């Protein structure tokens, strides 16, 4: 067999190398140009895929007018981003800046136990002594470790400073998603053709799996977490908590990584009963209990079969996406990583099934190759008659 070098001369090899080098350079340059827009485009595609069933339903309701349906859905999404999401983000940014400023100035403090706890029946004095002991020791520990946390303060301030850029990215993503709604079928066909080139046997299955995973994670994880954090932030604001934005942001993070909002909600309920009157505390407690349990109601409704992606994959997606793309990466990171995980698992399982079926086929064909059949053994040669 002749090699490629035997068919090409020295000049042809040099020209081929130059062309490949120029092609690689153009691909790299194109990636550098497009790289700042990758989070925006990724979030646009995620929004379009996640909300496409709603877009289809709205198009039917409006009498088959997709452009009007896309415009209405885009306006609603922009209202959500500009309104409640911006309010939550700005409050969180202010709280992060305050916390980072305390780290930089060695100003972190733990409040002492309120004296009114002593008057509580049954466990009031014991709780007061425990709180006072913990706050005193934590104050000493924080005094020692705060100087070592100062580099963290700069990272937190940088993240807070990029929040305005993140809002602009969200707005651009919503606008681009509005155009993607209209051309959804053409883009879906193009995606299927592209994947059929890479995986001819599984391209259609991979497209359906990617869409189902995007809808499951974006609606059942990201969507429920946003709703839960917005409601929690509203109740925290009604309770007149100064760090309501930061606490709501923590609820968002804990809900995305599937830990739950109880870690934040329970201490707030305790503080409410210490600071508010009985009626106010009871109403706020009922509201926070409802907020803490709302994910158990919404997730089965929007996810159906449930999420098969491991929690660790979502957690790594949250951390890695935030470090790579800022506040936008907080949402697109777990979705992209979940899609990659599901596609990889489907590819592995398909190869396993193919190998198992091939082995079963070989084992079923083996007796006919090695042994003659029973019919052949019992068959006798025909008898010739001689005249």
Account of the protein in words:
The protein is mainly alpha-helical and 387 residues long. It has one domain (38-349). 81% of the residues lie in helices and 0% in strands. It has 15 helices and no strands. Helix 9 runs antiparallel to helix 14. The longest helix has 42 residues, at 329-370. The model is unreliable at 368-380 (pLDDT under 50).
Observed structural traits:
single chain, 387 residues, mainly alpha, 15 helices, elongated
Short recap of the structure:
With 387 residues, the chain is mainly alpha-helical. The chain has 15 helices and no strands.
Q: What's the multimeric state?
A: single chain
Radius of gyration: 31 Å
Structural class: mainly alpha
Overall number of domains: 1
Largest sheet: none
Strand content: under 5%
Q: Could you tell me the mean pLDDT?
A: 75
Kindly, what is the distance between the CA atoms of the first and last residues, rounded to a whole number of angstroms? 64 Å
Taken from the alpha-carbon principal axes, the silhouette is: elongated
| Total number of beta strands | 0
DSSP summary: helix tally: 15
- Helix and strand run: HHHHHHHHHHHHHHH
- The stretches of 5 or more residues where confidence is low (pLDDT under 50) are 368-380
Binned, the helix content reads over 70%
């Amino acid at each position: 067999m002749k090699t490629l070098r035997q068919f090409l001369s020295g000049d042809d090899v040099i020209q081929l190398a130059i062309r490949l080098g120029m092609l690689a350079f153009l691909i790299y340059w194109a990636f550098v140009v497009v790289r700042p827009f990758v989070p925006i485009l990724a979030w646009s595609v995620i929004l379009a895929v996640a909300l496409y069933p709603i877009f289809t339903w709205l198009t039917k309701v409006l009498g088959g007018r997709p452009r009007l349906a896309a415009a209405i859905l885009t306006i609603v999404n922009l209202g959500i981003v500009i309104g409640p999401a911006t309010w939550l983000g700005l409050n969180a940014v202010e709280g992060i800046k305050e916390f980072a400023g305390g780290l930089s100035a060695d100003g972190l403090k733990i409040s002492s136990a309120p004296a009114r706890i002593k008057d509580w029946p049954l466990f009031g004095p014991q709780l007061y002594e425990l709180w006072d002991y913990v706050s005193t020791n934590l104050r000493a520990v924080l005094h020692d470790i705060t100087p070592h946390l100062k580099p963290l303060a700069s990272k937190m301030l940088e993240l807070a400073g990029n929040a305005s850029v993140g809002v602009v990215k969200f707005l651009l993503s919503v606008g681009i998603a509005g155009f993607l709604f209209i051309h959804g079928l053409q883009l879906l066909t193009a995606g299927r053709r592209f994947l059929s080139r890479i995986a001819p046997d599984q391209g259609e299955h991979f497209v359906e799996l990617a869409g189902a995973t995007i809808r499951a994670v974006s609606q059942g994880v990201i969507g429920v977490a946003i709703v839960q954090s917005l409601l929690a932030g509203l109740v925290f604001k009604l309770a007149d908590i100064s760090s309501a934005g930061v606490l709501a942001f923590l609820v968002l993070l804990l809900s995305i990584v599937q830990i739950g909002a109880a870690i934040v909600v329970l201490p707030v309920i305790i503080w409410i009963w210490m600071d508010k009157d009985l009626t106010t505390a009871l109403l706020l407690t009922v509201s926070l209990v409802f907020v803490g349990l709302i994910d158990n109601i919404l997730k089965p409704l929007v996810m159906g079969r449930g999420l098969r992606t491991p929690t660790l994959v979502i957690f790594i997606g949250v951390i890695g996406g935030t470090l790579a793309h800022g506040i936008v990466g907080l949402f697109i990171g777990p979705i992209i990583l979940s899609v990659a995980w599901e596609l990889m698992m489907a590819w592995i399982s398909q190869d396993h099934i193919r190998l198992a079926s091939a082995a079963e086929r070989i084992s079923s064909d083996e007796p006919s190759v090695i042994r003659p059949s029973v019919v052949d053994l019992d068959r006798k040669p025909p008898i010739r008659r001689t005249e």
